[in-house]
């Protein structure tokens, strides 16, 4: 017997109808080839999860310098754009709207994977000290990054625009800017990683300058209503420290709302990268920031059916992302609708490999049979 859930109400996003309020959020799975070209296995994976109202791709790096790890897809070469086509088509199989997440890791990269063999570049020469880089040979310390010049910043902004244009060519309906998890945009926002003395550093307004310019560049290729921004306002993962996160992210969310961005994607305080942690003592309630945004709000982070329905009921979120549950339950919307049992997540195969732990999770029919 199927009971009605608000998760299955429709919604318009960027002028396009969503069939439900369920989001497949961006999840790095490392199944592209060595040149960052999407593979047929990726098309199978996204096709299995096409029941979501909104599908957001795993992070696609905007340049070779923007990457930290092997086999993550890109959106900067012709081969990548061509290969994304079948993946996007598979994700749209059941009527999903599909966005590409644009990604630059900044100081979270390492010289071992940088094209020039030198340490990565970042807003300032401030190393990550509380974590270690996951290299092919094991965990090693992060390096002190090189500070970006003004000309290099301009080049990265142009690369965001080129990646957005490539996303449209590949068939994506919109893009999400990855401004969370201590990656490059987040590094510019937080004063712990941004010690610049030019117009990109200092005040909150200055530190927001990089994000503002990226949005303006991407909006040359897509309507603002087809652009989303992902934020992790309470996270200090990868040393994303700021002296006043509440003020910083309140400013950011209000500006995104005033600008007319299509959606803001808020990561819950209990999420640190891909792991769940205790809620930080100084965390900002997601509802507090969501109330500052006049458009569509997506909330992701450790939610199940009951908590997602509560987010919709109390007006905190319009859409809810399910990461780990969607990995292990490719037909998650159907399982939610029928209140069917959920498959547990296996740790093997989360990052890299073949079908195991990626496309071999059973559908509801296979589980019953």
Describe this structure in words.
The chain is an alpha/beta fold and 369 residues long. 30% of the residues lie in helices and 17% in strands. It has helices at 40-48, 78-91, 150-170, 184-189, 204-207, 209-218, 245-259, 286-290, 305-313, 324-328, 332-338, 364-368, and strands at 11-13, 16-18, 22-24, 54-61, 97-103, 121-122, 132-135, 138-141, 146-147, 174-178, 227-231, 263-267, 271-272, 275-276, 296-300, 319-321. It has an eight-stranded parallel beta barrel. Strands 1-2 form a two-stranded antiparallel ribbon. A two-stranded parallel sheet has the order 6-9.
Describe the SSE topology.
Layout (H helix, E strand, L loop, with lengths): L10 E3 L2 E3 L3 E3 L15 H9 L5 E8 L16 H14 L5 E7 L17 E2 L9 E4 L2 E4 L4 E2 L2 H21 L3 E5 L5 H6 L14 H4 L1 H10 L8 E5 L13 H15 L3 E5 L3 E2 L2 E2 L9 H5 L5 E5 L4 H9 L5 E3 L2 H5 L3 H7 L25 H5 L1
Parallel strand pairs: 3-4, 3-16, 4-5, 5-10, 6-9, 10-11, 11-12, 12-15, 15-16
Antiparallel strand pairs: 1-2, 7-8, 13-14
